[in-house]
UniProtKB/TrEMBL annotation:
The keyword tRNA-binding does not apply. GO terms for biological process: L-methionine salvage from S-adenosylmethionine; nucleoside metabolic process. It holds the Pfam family PNP_UDP_1. GO terms for cellular component: cytosol. One of its GO terms (molecular function) is methylthioadenosine nucleosidase activity. It comes from the Bacteria. Keywords: Signal. Residues 31-249 form the Nucleoside phosphorylase domain. Residues 1-24 form the signal peptide. Transmembrane segments: none annotated. This is 5'-methylthioadenosine nucleosidase.
Length: 277
């Protein structure tokens, strides 16, 4: 509103002028939800409204809304390097409020069954090792390999020091994930450690070592690399994984687990974004 005085017949007349400018409300930053494969992303994509699709290199993104909240679905493709690259693209192009990496996984914990969900309170790279020295002809035994350590340059910057093997979930995202537990009826939901590597482990002795020494609940091929990139950008992150199989207790593969995890991740995203308004 603006006041303006004008002279009329020697009297001062005050005229009120109303401004009609509309100020747009700032848009809420989206949550990026990742899945490596179509069976880990297609259901979420179908739930979105007002969808736009973008492709950057070999990586595809679907931007839309779910229950009125902004969501970006990212199909990262399988593996540590693919998921890391997809995460950089997602952060640079969408400036997300948070990132959720979700999908199927193989069990390490004999107490967990197919359709159980692991909220990744921590995630760890379980593919980084230093092997003992062996002469030619002495063979190789992965059960004797040692966890790799961080080799840092002198006077390392904080960014360089982020080359860790284990990453903590963002506490607000963790709370949002725990809140979603009450709506999940297809199995139990636990907090645990997600192990990531470009290896599909089928050796029960090796899996036992991971479970006992790393405390892993499940294994897959993306979460820890996404966590590392997110930490470099200071973007809140959490991993969520459903057991699609568990050879430690003869739990056979069920493809329907992918949809179950996608629904859970969408609920977590809504819970989180509701706290950001």
């Amino acid at each position: 509103m603006m006041l303006k005085s004008v002279l009329k017949n020697t009297a001062i007349v005050t005229v009120t002028l109303w401004a009609t400018h509309t100020i747009a409300a700032p848009q809420q930053a989206p949550v990026v939800i990742q899945g490596a494969l179509d069976i880990e992303t297609d259901h979420m994509i179908q739930q979105l409204e007002n969808v736009s699709i973008k492709t950057y290199g070999g990586w595809k993104f679907w931007q839309g809304t779910y229950k009125g909240y902004p969501i970006v679905i990212s199909r990262t493709l399988m593996g540590m390097s693919n998921s890391a690259a997809a995460t950089v693209l997602a952060i640079e192009h969408y400036r997300p409020a948070a990132i959720i990496n979700q999908g199927t996984s193989g069990g390490h914990d004999p107490q967990l069954k197919v359709f159980d969900i692991v909220i990744g309170k921590e995630s760890e790279n379980i593919g980084a090792f230093i092997t003992p020295k062996k002469a030619l002809g002495e063979g190789s035994n992965s059960l004797t390999w040692n966890k790799s350590f961080n080799v840092l340059p002198k006077n390392a910057t904080p960014e360089e020091e982020s080359r860790h093997l284990r990453f903590q979930a963002d506490p607000v995202l963790l709370a949002a994930a725990v809140k979603a537990k009450s709506n999940y009826k297809q199995g139990k939901v636990v907090e645990g450690v997600i192990g990531s590597a470009d290896v599909w482990n089928n050796e029960l002795d090796r899996i036992k070592i991971f479970h006992e020494q790393y405390k892993t609940s499940v294994e897959e091929m993306e979460t820890a690399s996404v966590a590392q990139v997110a930490s470099l950008y200071n973007v809140p992150f959490i991993g969520i994984r459903v057991l699609s199989n568990n050879i430690t207790n003869n739990g056979t593969y069920n493809p329907a687990t992918g949809v179950a995890c996608q629904n859970y991740a969408l609920n977590v995203a809504v819970n989180y974004l509701a706290t950001q308004k």
